[in-house]
Write a structure and sequence with these properties.
Elements: H1 14-17, E1 27-29, H2 38-49, H3 51-57, H4 59-64, H5 67-95, H6 107-143, H7 151-171, H8 176-198, H9 211-225, H10 241-269, H11 274-278, H12 285-294, H13 297-331, H14 338-341, H15 352-367, H16 375-400, H17 417-436, H18 452-470, E2 479-481, H19 484-487
Parallel strand pairs: 1-2
């Protein structure tokens, strides 16, 4: 970046424009088809990020920790820091585009960063699929007042939904870019219609909060906007990733923040009884909010349908990201049976076995929801904490080495802005990992304990054991040698 503008590679940096990695590491052979373009990639970014639905789907967590006014302030505060994280991820991804993410700072750091990131995306799949399943059950409950909603109803819907998009990911690989483009349209149309309808409703009630409760409430904001690396894992499925990934991240965050903020303002404006939202018989909090806003069950179902469709498309995008990160770890020999899971289907040109494993793993996790009322909050918290740890493992060594180990890509922040953005992003992540592991309320008991610490600690322990077993065989992050004719394609 020169004089505040992004650095754009000249002839000396042709390889960077082409999307080649600059780290001095061994190379992988290009295995995945480059089906995505800039438009479909940006659509996947806003669909998988799905900021406004993620914010609404977990809004009860934020209302408990700060009340309706706190929801907006927490969202703004979280978004500010995640813009800095997104900029830091974008410049690393521009310099070292890889489906495994950019981590040029050593084998051990790459191993833990890769696994934390993969596990975070698996938690994201579980969380968003539960949100989608809860919407389906809530729509049925709204139209059948005598229906007694149970958590196992959501679990059944969860299995059906995850099975559908698993089949789509397995057998519709070439159609996925178009599917994600349609998903992007539903996200944009859904939020615009929802905002218009909810904007006419009466004002909200407020609730007091203290400083630490406000910090806890930022978990909802972090869950809503905390996916800056979603498109980086498709670096090997798009032309000119060094250029297109930063562009897609920018589009994701501009649209995500603006749509999420306007959406939160309007739905909170439509609440006339906060207590009913928190104590709702519906397992999806927006069902009660929409019921109050629309004034009828039919109106609430219509609004929920506008969130259900984008949520379903988001699940497809998240499962793509999760399976690609898992497949990349297998390709780098970071797990048992690596050769088996690194297999690419010669028929469908995608990681069939990785998709199937991720589907099975997330299904088993999702079924826990039927047994525990705190499972959803734990999955949301685990996604935020695990992704935060993975971003820290990528950005902090970059900062501590004075940003000298990575040659600039198409997008690069100059001194001192790069150092400042990286430093503030790392300070936020290091500080808030502890906050997000704290209990939601005291005294702590089995029902209100924050099980994020158990999930994060247990999974990190499992990763540590795999590192001990695989450290001699693990190849570490590697670049991908790209086919020259693919590099000549227009970035659109």
């Amino acid at each position: 970046m020169q004089n505040g503008s992004p650095v754009v590679a000249d002839e000396e940096h042709t390889s960077l424009l082409a999307g080649e990695a600059v780290a001095t590491v061994p190379a992988h052979v290009q295995e995945l088809d480059r089906n995505f373009g800039l438009i479909s990639l940006a659509s996947l970014a806003i669909t998988s990020g799905n900021t406004w639905i993620a914010a609404g789907g977990a809004i009860n967590v934020a209302i408990y920790n700060g009340g309706p006014p706190g929801v907006l302030y927490e969202y703004i505060a979280s978004s500010f820091f995640y813009w800095l994280i997104a900029a830091s991820i974008a410049e690393l991804a521009s310099a070292i585009p890889s489906a495994g993410g950019a981590s040029p700072h050593g084998r051990s750091v790459g191993f833990f960063a890769g696994w934390w990131n993969c596990l975070a995306w698996l938690m994201a799949v579980v969380s968003m699929t539960q949100i989608t399943a809860a919407q389906a059950v809530s729509m049925y409950a709204l139209m059948h007042p005598s229906f007694n909603t149970q958590r196992w109803h959501v679990s059944v819907s969860f299995v059906i939904i995850i099975g559908i998009y698993c089949l789509m990911n397995l057998y519709l690989n070439r159609a996925l870019p178009m599917i994600n483009t349609v998903g992007g349209f539903t996200v944009i149309a859904g939020v615009l219609i929802s905002i218009v309808i909810c904007a006419i409703m009466p004002h909200i009630n407020s609730a007091p909060s203290d400083a630490f409760v406000f910090l806890l409430g930022m978990l909802n904001g972090a869950f809503s906007v905390g996916s800056p690396d979603v498109v980086t894992h498709l670096a090997e499925e798009i032309p000119k990733p060094s250029i297109n990934i930063p562009k897609a991240i920018l589009f994701q965050y501009v649209f995500g923040f603006s749509s999420g903020f306007l959406y939160l303002v309007t739905i909170l404006y439509g609440i006339n009884d906060t207590g009913s939202v928190l104590d709702s018989k519906y397992l999806f909090p927006l069902a009660e909010i929409y019921h109050q806003a629309a004034g009828s069950a039919a109106g609430a179902v219509g609004l929920l349908l506008l969130t259900f469709l984008p949520s379903f498309f988001a699940c497809i995008g998240l499962s793509i990201t999760a399976s690609r990160t898992f497949w990349t770890l297998a390709r780098d020999n970071a797990m048992p049976f690596s050769a088996f899971f690194a297999h690419i289907s010669p028929t469908h040109h995608n990681p069939h076995r990785a998709i199937l494993f991720c589907t099975l793993f997330t299904t088993l996790l999702g079924l826990i929801y039927a047994l525990s009322p705190t499972a959803f909050s734990a999955f949301v918290g685990s996604f935020v904490v695990l992704s935060t740890l993975s971003y820290t493992a990528a950005i902090l060594p970059h900062l501590l080495t004075h940003r000298r180990n990575v040659r600039p890509g198409w997008f690069w922040m100059p001194w001192p802005w790069g150092e400042l953005v990286n430093a503030v992003a790392c300070a936020y992540m290091l500080g808030f990992v502890g906050v997000f592991l704290a209990p939601f309320r005291v005294p702590v008991d089995a029902r209100n304990m924050n099980y994020t610490v158990v999930i994060t600690g247990g999974l990190t322990g499992a990763v540590a054991m795999m590192w001990v077993a695989k450290r001699k065989e693990y190849k570490g992050p590697q670049e991908v040698v790209l086919d020259p004719h693919l590099l000549a394609r227009d970035p659109m």
